Amino acid sequence: MPIVSKYSNERVEKIIQALLNVLVEESATPDLALMCLGNTITDILNNEVPQAQRETIVNNFTNALKQSIK
User: Whole-prediction pTM value?
Assistant: First the structure.
């Protein structure tokens, strides 16, 4: 069953493109890009997600990430 998002594909793609543009402008290597994105994810989790929900969200996120590269 496909996952239905509350966000439009257009909005998601626009944000992804903006993030990728910054990485290209900075000539970020794959390891630097992943480090920056990982630190951004950590910052969002620590500052925007209630502590009681963090572990569940991290587990869901990592599972989705693993599935996306298969």
Answer: 0.84
